[in-house]
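The pair is quoted verbatim as follows:
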Amino acid sequence: MKDKTTALTSFMKQRRMGLNDFIQRIATNSYACKHPEVQSILNMNPPQDAAELMNANPSPPPSPSQQINLGPSSNPTAKPSDFHFLKVIGKGSFGKVLLARHRSDDQFYAVKVLQKKAILKKKEEKHIMSERNVLLKNVKHPFLVGLHYSFQTADKLYFVLDYINGGELFYHLQRERCFLEPRARFYAAEIASALGYLHSLNIVYRDLKPENILLDQQGHIILTDFGLCKENIELNGTTSTFCGTPEYLAPEVLHKQPYDRTVDWWCLGAVIYEMLYGLPPFYSRNTAEMYDNILNKPLQLKPNISNAARHLLEGLLQKDRTKRLGCTDDFTEIKNHMFFSPINWEELNAKKLTPPFNPNVTGPNDLRHFDPEFTDEPVPNSIGCSPDSALVTASIKDAAEAFLGFSYAPSMDSYL
């Protein structure tokens, strides 16, 4: 039992690795590279905006030929020194998320601070701007994190976001192993509502996983991290970028086929499966075997779930996307499924349903649900100050238009 717990903990830690890091690791694993599916993925000719994901050797730093054009700012008075940065509460490929208190009104925010140099080096400007664009569209949905405003300095981008401190769904799953069906149903309904809203805006989320699902202080779901969202996908539209998280890649993505909104319903099925069983479907510690399972192994469901849950998982984890639940009428099909018959969707969206779990946080300084891996890390001194422009000029160039229009401040009616 101890060995099993150690293996599960190791798996959970590895899950924090993004696809970019994963591709680089697998590319250096001679055993894994011999598998035909892995070779196919590594040798594919990706679209332009996914090229860096496939590249095990990062491109050289931007050449110092042009100074970056920061563009007009919709919030010209915002600056890092407006905030007192208190704790690191998350980390990613391009920067950190910090708990910060605004010095003038004492309000707490989660401030996502991204290094422009790292973004430009990996040619990820499109994903960052996509995240910012999606955040602008979501400010009024109850289960999507809200953006208050964004601004930039010469070397960093700043998202000033809602501060959510009930913990990642990932964190709670790690502690409890799995959830009972009513709790899984409640979370799945709020997640599905958020995905349905994104789809109504012609946005495909593409990276649903427990790490990107937060609980607020009452225990409601908040979906975050929109860096892999794809905009402008009409009802029958498709895209083909290879991206996501290994455990959750849908068969059509692995097959390098065009895919559509139903990729999000596959991921929802994978998250529901993980909430009920403790691991993602088709999971194997051997990545090549896991890919083969996703593509070829029939879905196996243990008998300890209801018939409704079984039917839902079979529909969402259908390998043929044209037969998958949600392929015809999108979110309407999901919410009308018998698994969700106990859910009153109007009350759910109004947050009138009592969450099955209360994080019991005492206030903004209560960090019990954040991983100490983050909170024990010292806050970098450079986060809260603007650098000497003379030093910056030499390090971030060749991107005059990259972040034009990044800065944002909502109109006052956004909060009404």
About this structure: The first strand starts at residue 83 and ends at 91. The chain has 17 helices and seven strands.
